[in-house]
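worker-03 picked up job from queue 'complexes'. Input manifest follows; two sequence lines, order preserved.
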Amino acid sequence: MAQTRTGEVVTQIHYARKGQITEEMLCVAKREKLEPELIRDEVAIGRLVIPSNINHKNLEPQGIGDAVTCKINANIGGSSLRSDATEELRKLKLCLSLGADAIMDLSVGPHITEIRRSLLENCPAPLGTVPIYEAIERVERCEDMTADGLLGVIEEQARQGVDFVTVHCGLLKAHVPIATRRLAGIVSRGGSLTATWMLHHDRENPLFDNFDRLLDICRRYDVTLSLGDGLRPGALADASDEAQFAELETLGQLVARCRDAEVQVMVEGPGHVPFDQIAMNMQRERDSCDEAPFYILGPIVTDIAPGYDHITSAIGATMGAFSGAAMLCYVTPREHLGLPTLEDVRQGVVAYKIAAHAADVARRRPGARDRDDALSRARVAFDWDRVFELSLDPQRARMMHDESHVRPEDKKADYCSMCGPKHCAMKLSKAVSESTKRRA
Amino acid sequence: MAQTRTGEVVTQIHYARKGQITEEMLCVAKREKLEPELIRDEVAIGRLVIPSNINHKNLEPQGIGDAVTCKINANIGGSSLRSDATEELRKLKLCLSLGADAIMDLSVGPHITEIRRSLLENCPAPLGTVPIYEAIERVERCEDMTADGLLGVIEEQARQGVDFVTVHCGLLKAHVPIATRRLAGIVSRGGSLTATWMLHHDRENPLFDNFDRLLDICRRYDVTLSLGDGLRPGALADASDEAQFAELETLGQLVARCRDAEVQVMVEGPGHVPFDQIAMNMQRERDSCDEAPFYILGPIVTDIAPGYDHITSAIGATMGAFSGAAMLCYVTPREHLGLPTLEDVRQGVVAYKIAAHAADVARRRPGARDRDDALSRARVAFDWDRVFELSLDPQRARMMHDESHVRPEDKKADYCSMCGPKHCAMKLSKAVSESTKRRA
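worker-03 finished. Artifact:
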C-alpha cells in the first residue's frame, strides 16, 4: 500500500530515502509506464522530483527528471498593467487542454492572492510561483523588503498549496559586479530585484543567508525548490559567461544542502544561448549540480526574432531536452514585447509540446514515437478525423484543413489542396504499392 | 575584370575551373564579405553553387554552399484547386521582403507558364521549379508523359530563365519495391509520379536514362541541377531507411557526372527525420555526394503537429544547417493540410530565417552575431524603433508591441507590459550597473 504523508517532514525524497513508495510515486510510475521502485530510487537520489504540496488537494502529480518524459511548463499571470482572474483562468484551461505539464503563476499587480487561489483550485498540474513578486508587491520600493517578509510570503504560499517556487538564492553579492560587465546585464526579474536589494543594503542575498529557514518551510509542506538563475544570459553575447557559471556553482552547493535536508530541488537554466553551446550547458549543470533536474527557459538561439520567440526558443529547448534537460519553460511569441494573449499562450504551449516530444523521440524513450506512427498511418489512409485527433492541437489542424477545402466533398477527400487530386503523392504512392505487390 | 558568359558552355563551374572569376562570383563574394578567389575555388570543386541562368536578367546571384552563410528557399505556386498569378506575385514579394534567398515556383494547374513568367520578371532571387509538374500538366495521365516531353519542358523553362530545377533522376526502378515496404511510401510528388511512370512502362527513370541530354541543356543556360530526393522519408518511421540511402548513393554517382560535364549541382534531402539522426544524415550526404551542397526540406522532427510544421521543421532545419546543410527549404504551418496562405508564407519564411541564422551563429561564421548584439543593445536602451528595425519581421514585432501598449505613453516607455514599470528587470539592472560603477 502506498504511503500517506504526515508528520514533520512530508517530502517525497524523505519517504523515498526510507524506501517507501508514496501515492504520488505510484501515480507517476503509472503515467510514465515505469516501475514504482525506479521512481522511488530516482527521487531518493534527487535525480527526479515530484512537486506535490500536501495542501494542493486536486493535484495529479508529475515527475520531472531524467528517467521520465520531458515536461513543459507554461507561465501565466497578470501584470501590473493588466490583471484579471477570469482571463488567467481562461489561459490556465487552455494550457491544460493543450497538454502543459506544469503551470507557473507569475502574477504581479494588485490581485496576486485571489488569482493564485483561483488557479490552484482549478489546476491538477503542479503549480509554481516566484514568491519575491508578491513580497515586492507588499512594499513601496524593493529595498523595503525584508528577509522575514519574503519568508512570510513563501510560508503563506506553501500553506495555500503551491508545489514549487523559484527562488534566486544563488545570486550572491560578489556576482553582481561581474554581471554588470555584460551586454544585457541582469534580465531575470527576480535576479534584478535581488541585486537591487543587496546593493542598497550592502548585504548578502537574504534567501542565501536564510536558506535553512527556507528549507524548513519546504520540508513541512513538500514545496519543491526551483533554484532560479538570476544571472541567466539575456543576450547571445552574455551566454556561458563568468557570471552565469559563478551562480551555477553556488546553485550546486545549495542542491547539496537541499538533499541533506530532504527537500526536493531542481535547477533553472538559461536564457539566450547560441545553438552550439546548449549541449555543453546541459553537461555543465549535471556536473555542477549533481544531476538535479534541469528546468530550462528556452534557450533562445538568436536575439533577432521578436514576435517569434516561441520558435527561436523551441529550437533551443529541443536541443536542451535532447541533451538532458528535464523540463522546458515555454516562451510565447510576445516574449520581449508584452504580456501574452490567449493566442500567444496557445502558440507557446504547442511549440514546447513539440520540443519536448521531439526530444523524447530522439532520446528513444520507449513508445515515444507511437503517436507519430499512428498519425502518419492515418495520414496515409486519408483518415482526416483521426489525423486531427492525434494532433497536438486538433482544433487548429482541423480549422486549417477546412479553410483550405471549402467544398464539403473536399473536406474528407483522398487528396488535399497542396497537390490536388491529380498530383497527390500519397494517392499515387498507394497505387504504386498495390501494383508492386500484385507483381511480386 | 569579371568574365562575361558566352559560348557553348556558360556554367559558373566551367569558368571557375579555367581560373576565371565571373560577375556572379564577384557579386557573391561581396555579399558574403569573402575573397572572390575563394568563391571561385569553391565553385570549381563543386562545394558551392551559384544558380544563375544566363536568361534570368534581373538576377542578384546567391551562393549556396559550405563556405557561405546558410540560405533559405520559399516554395510558392498555385495548385489545380487555386491558381492565380496575382496572389502568387503577392507571396513572392512577401518572401523577398522577409529575406528569402531563393524561390521555387511549384505551380501545378492551368496557368503554369504565365505564373512563372510573372514571377521571373519580379524575382531578383534565384528561381527554381520542378519541371515534371508542367510535363504532367500537358498530358492526360502521368503514364502518357514521354522522356522527350519532359526534356522539352526543361529546355523551355531553361530558355525562360529558370535558375535551378529539381529533377528526381536518382529514383531507380529497383528502388520502388524497397519503398513500398514503408509506413508512408513515396511522399515526394515528383517521386511518386516517376515511380508510377516507371511501373506502368516497366522502364528505367526517364531522366536517369537521358541524363546526358539533361546535362546538355544545363550547360547551355547554366541551369543548376537540384537532385531531388524522390524517396525522402515522409514519416519518422521511414527516416534513414534503405530506400532513402539507396537513392542517395545514386545521387552521388550523378553528382560526379554533373561535375564531369561542368554542370552545377546540389542534392536535396529529407523530409521527416528524428532529431538524433539529423547530423548523421548530413554527414552521409557529404560522404556519398562528395560535398555537393545539401538542400534540405526541414527536416520535420515529429509527425504529431499538423498546423505547426513550420516549427517542427525549423527545429530540424537548425540542426541540419548546424551540421552542414547549405540551403533550407521552408515549410509552412499549413504543410500536410492545404495550400499556404500569405500568413502561412510569412510564418514559414521567418521560421527559416531563424533556423539559418541560428546555425550561422552556432557555426561561428564571422560577423554572424553582430545583428543579435545590436538588437540586444537596442533592447537594453529601450530604443524600440531600433529593436523593430533590426528584427526579422519588423512589422509583426511592432504590431505585437503596440497591441500590448495601448496608451501612447506606454509605446515608447522604458518598460513593457510583461513586468510593468515597477518590476522591469532591464530598468533595475541598469540602475544596479550604474550604482556598481559609482562604487568602484
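worker-03 released lock.
Chain A touches chain B through 116 residues (CB under 8 Å).
Residues 370-439 of chain A form one domain.
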